[in-house]
Amino acid sequence: MAPKSADALRVPVASLQRRAPDVAQPVIVDVRGLGKTFKKGVRAVDGVHLQVRKGEIFAFLGPNGAGKSTTIKMLCTLLRPTDGKASIAGFDIETSPREVRRRIGLVFQERTLDDQLTAEQNLRFHAVLYGVPKREVEERITRVLAVVGLTNRRSDRVSKYSGGMARRLEIARALLHTPDILFLDEPTVGLDPQTRARMWADVRRLRDEQGVTVFMTTHYMDEAEYADRIAIIDHGRIVALDTPARLKAQVGLDKVLLSTADDAKAAAALAKKGMTAEATAKGLVLKVPDGEAAVARIVGAAGTGVRNVSVHKPSLDDVFMHFTGHEIRPEGAQDGAMARAWMASTRGR
Amino acid sequence: MTQFGNEVRTALMVWRRELIRFTRSPARVITGFVQPILLLFVLGYGLGKLVPGYQQFIFPGAVAMNVITTAIFSGVSIVWDREFGFLREMLVAPVSRSSILAGKVLGGAVVATLQGCLILVLAPVVGVSLGFVAILQFLGGALLMAVSLTAFGVFVASRMKKIDGFQAVMQFLLFPMIFLSGSQFPLQDVPLWLAALNRLDPLTYAVDPLRRILLDPANLAPDLATLSQRSQVQFFGETIPMWSEFVAMALFAALFFGLAVLSFRKAEQ
Ligand SMILES: Nc1ncnc2c1ncn2[C@@H]1O[C@H](COP(=O)(O)OP(=O)(O)O)[C@@H](O)[C@H]1O
Ligand SMILES: [Mg+2]
């Protein structure tokens, strides 16, 4: 399921206030050199190193097969690492898996609800699994359903839920045992843009109001923008880790795209004024520190016949390209095929 | 809440889920009637013409087979739980595998017993008289049998990657086991190889006591009494006591429950 358009969700991003990691907060996810080599010799995760502080929204961005799910599964004690160490809320994932499980809320890439049960029954089941005290169950169910806006669907069978509602219910369920940290593995895959936007609003609200730490993965660029910090992962390795703004700053200059009646002539004119323009299929591209400010100067220098000018700030796509040397994934209908292959490979275990 | 309390609550909750799911699929109960009705009214009637008393004779076997298939199915349904993801929700919880599997096995067994024994209501139609005590004994025996077969089903499921494997399990395991169990005909005065296979089949010790409960030779018409007498499991010419068969069932249940827990510990992280 390809994102409809990166811009569809971008509107609120500008108004987001992201938090730089607050060093006063304790480190809640501490990963040191974590690696996983599967039996067939597949090196899915290769020496991952990262720290997430309490209250952060941390995103793992990478293409399909990059090792995101494998990392999350190791952190959630579902898969044993072959090397390295990690701890969650101070508990080692290998030596204290039960303590870790108690403190995390999990939403998997694949759906894990019982369709035959109602939303409430699914939640009650979860409450028992996680030892939520009996007298608190009722109140907590009411609260988590309200958080995700499913209060009036409480007694509906999950089989009647839409994909988006099911996802929200899974998030509600993951919150039921008041975890310190919420792991969301590709929580928005297969959802329409509105539902995705709504989910993100929910996630941010959770962080803002309840101080929940969020560790999520995505292969959608536009979603990574919502995170406080992003780790770009490719072939099992973290190739960059910083706030979205700083990552973009590292990539560097704005691009001004110019199309004219005669690109060659315009390029020559620009060169005379000391401006280097690169000829591309879409027109001339100039790299400048501040695109908007340079537009007038560029148009003036290019002479007559300018048809179109546009300014492009570095996007996360550029960031990704910069650090990995390739696009996040070859666009196409691969998503489904890979997801199926992945499902098939997990089922046997 | 102590950890132990949590484990018990978990098992009960998993059990309850089995029951809820059971009530959600009434069609299952109806389709469950097909096989025993064929056995009773087609095979039973047809062979009853040749072997007097056969229709009554096959009645406990038909109920037992119904419980057996339902129980195995209940156990194997954990493959669906895996396929639809819910198994993962259970397995990542901070509770032990054995509590989850205990709930699954006990819940599945209760469902199988209820569903399987529902055809006891046909007893008067077939001409088998049922006392209250006999019904209770029968249900008890059926539950024990259902527990062991659900455990067996869960174990099989732990080794099965996909539900497609279920057909193979039925063909290669369940059908031979049912045929060899003597649920449809006495398998006592038969050649040694067949007798040996019959004695090796765990279902033999599940079906035999159930039949003894329903068809006590002491209160039967002569033809049926002979049939029933001749079907009782014997070793070296001696009929073995019923309690030993229950013990065998219990051991079978414990063995496969243990194997299932081990298998799930190893396979699903
Ligand atoms: N159980 C497994 N056995 C073998 N290889 C696996 C298994 N699970 C995942 N992989 C491989 O590990 C790599 C990373 O997979 P994954 O963590 O699922 O990536 P992502 O979640 O980023 O799409 C892929 O090449 C995938 O095929
Ligand atoms: Mg994944």
Summed over residues and divided by their number, the pLDDT of chain A gives a mean of 83
Q: Classify the helix fraction of chain B into a percent range.
A: over 70%
**Count of alpha/pi helices of chain A:** 12
**Total domain modules of chain A:** 2
Radius of gyration of chain A: 23 Å
Residue share in helix of chain A: 25-40%
Beta-strand level of the residues of chain B, as a percent range? under 5%
Q: Say which CATH homologous superfamily of the largest domain in chain A is assigned.
A: P-loop containing nucleotide triphosphate hydrolases
Largest sheet of chain B: 2 strands, antiparallel
The stretches of 5 or more residues of chain A where confidence is low (pLDDT under 50) are: 1-15, 330-349
Number of strands of chain A: 14
The CATH architecture of the largest domain in chain A can be given as: 3-Layer(aba) Sandwich
Morphology call of chain B: globular
Q: Tell me, what is the CATH class of the largest domain in chain A?
A: Alpha Beta
Can you list the strand order of the major beta sheet of chain A? 6-7-8-3-9-10
Q: Mean pLDDT score of chain B, rounded?
A: 87
Shape of chain A: elongated
Oligomer: heterodimer
CATH fold-level label of the largest domain in chain A: Rossmann fold
